Amino acid sequence: MSLDQFRQASASDGLAAALDTVGFWAAVVMVAVALTYMLVLACGAYTLAGRRKRAGQRDRLSRPLQHPVGKPLQIVVLMPCLNEAAVIGPSVARLLEDPNPALHVLVVDDGSDDATSDIVGAIADPRVALLRRDPPNARQGKGEALNHAIEIIRARYRDIDPEYVVVGVVDADGHLDPTAWDVARGALRDQTVGAVQLGVRISNRHASLLARMQDIEFVTFTSVFQQGRRRMRSVGMGGNAQFVRLAALNALGRRPWTRSLTEDFDLGIRLNGTGWINEFRGDAAVHQEGVTSLRRLIRQRTRWFQGNLQARNLMGFIARHLRGRARADTLWQVLSPYLLLAGSLLVISFLLMLGLCVSNVIRGVPQQWSWVPGTYLLAFGPSYLYALVYWLYERDEGAGPVRCVAWCHLFVLYGLLAGVFGWRALARECLGRSGWAKTSREAEHASVPEAMTQEAQT
């Protein structure tokens, strides 16, 4: 080896060592913070579950809490849709399988140019109504469509105490578990609960590995984060299978939903500041269609990420209206997108270091590989926790622990896409671009899981 080659190899090794040191310790700090946060939420969820179990044992010895006589809950399910002719009919029919006369469905057609309105208008059940929005008022965002619908609901139920009117939001492709109505109504028996969010599962998880990753994402989020946030009083709302008292929505003003790209995220934060309690119930879920195209997934998640970036506008509200652990956790939620952007820089740093190592191996320069075990534990250690949580959900469908561990290793790699979503979303936000076309619906092969269908038929 010549002197110049030796100097080049030494400089390359020095740069690799510097990147290795900085990247390693930055990753250690970020992973440690993330794991600590997850463990705090997991411990909170476990403690709360134990308390509720003991309380449930006591409740069986006494009379269960009931609504006052003569004041049954009136539930109005809003189903905002745009060009959903392929799914709207069966989706409304599934909601109407609950025979309760106090259940109504209001389909909000936000300017469809297909047969969506015609299909809804042909449904004979008197519990179904159609709100047709036409241009130029239509297609202004989901929040605007929901705000229009809430004006109709306020007028229709003006003679009923708003605490006994519940507004649900279910997507046009949503498949509620048969037990969902009992779970939601049961949670709202507590007069301090203003909103209930059900769990979310991906219906086509068996047909696509990409959809499986989204299912793991929702399961781990709801099982660890949402359950833990019940104790912190910082439960968030999703855009699908949320049920909110009209009184709680009224506490947010005439237009409860914002024009944010993630109006559901904003709603959950603002509801937590009203004095009402947001509840999460994971013992029932809505099954929704997962995206099976990487290009469409990036587009969808970029919109979600940008909406979370827009939540910075709520920082003042959080500081004024939230207290204690709820304030701290909500601030964490709002700042998380920026932490993910910072974390993506560590990924780039690691890839550069790995490239230098490979280059040195090709050039015959000896390498130290002692960093591999530690890097593996930092990157894939959390996957074993994810696998345990996911296996508890999937074991009844035949998924073994080894398969769940393999899936969750892939899930860690899937999580690296957040860097792509994040920087794309940040660029759009900086450019002032916030318009989005509706994510097109997948083919109808995404169906309700077989076990759920059989249960509904019985």
From TrEMBL:
InterPro entries: Nucleotide-diphossugar_trans (IPR029044). The chain crosses the membrane at residues 22-48, 338-362, 374-393, 405-426. Keywords: Glycosyltransferase, Membrane, Transferase, Transmembrane, Transmembrane helix. It comes from the Bacteria. PANTHER family: POLY-BETA-1,6-N-ACETYL-D-GLUCOSAMINE SYNTHASE. Belongs to the glycosyltransferase 2 family. This is Multidrug transporter. The lineage of its organism: Bacteria, Bacillati, Actinomycetota, Actinomycetes, Actinomycetales.
